[in-house]
Predict the 3D structure of the following.
Amino acid sequence: MGLKRQKLAKKTINFYKYNFSFREPFQILVDGTFCQLALKNKIQIKEQMPKYLMGEVKLCTTSCALKELETLGGDLYGAKIILQKFQLRSCPHYKKPVPASQCLLSMLRENNPHNYFVATQDRSLTEGLKKIPGVPLLYIVFNTIVLDKVCQTSLDHVRAVQLGELVSPAQQQSITGMKKEQGIVQKDGERRGRKRKRKQSNPNPLSCLKKKKKSGPTPPKKTTEEGKKRKRVRNKKPSTAGGDLPAPAATDA
């Protein structure tokens, strides 16, 4: 494995780990076209894939991808044998199989919630996957496995998250998990948190005082019948007709 190719792969994997919460073991969805070219170039997928991605992997496929190889038959028999050895992921087309490209697109939905890598040589499928943010693509060039560079859709999504315009699915799941742990997840119409109990306190001492009786209207002051103050009358001695005479002087006998 070339040193430059390994460094580029490590840089790309770290991008998906940091921004889309990819963790080991990496889940890799494989279709028939990838197995067919690996068989032609004598590539041991189970041996080389963990070395290239520098971590534990889980190789998986869908029933639609297997059914497609069974239908085509002939030269694809060897690819079918390889694909049968991988883990089978349930898809919604169990009763009515659809083309593998359509099935893999439906598995990833709008935001790749299960963090799948996709290994394919189908160009139409690759173009559809590049419209979904957070989907690492693997393909074969000559006799080596290559991890495609990060698509523009994933870069735009990460930029929008950093600017606060979006919340990534991984961040939304972590926020929901933290709320459940702290018991603050509420149902519709339910009040958030518990109702706070009021602390019982002593009564206000001023409210315990007896209320004063309200006094009636003050009676008016008593006055004389005439409504005036009583005047003082001064008595005068009666005077004589000739007027007041001086008293006679005393004589010696």
Notes: The first strand starts at residue 26 and ends at 30. Strands lie at 26-30, 57-62, 87-89, 116-119, 137-141, 144-147.
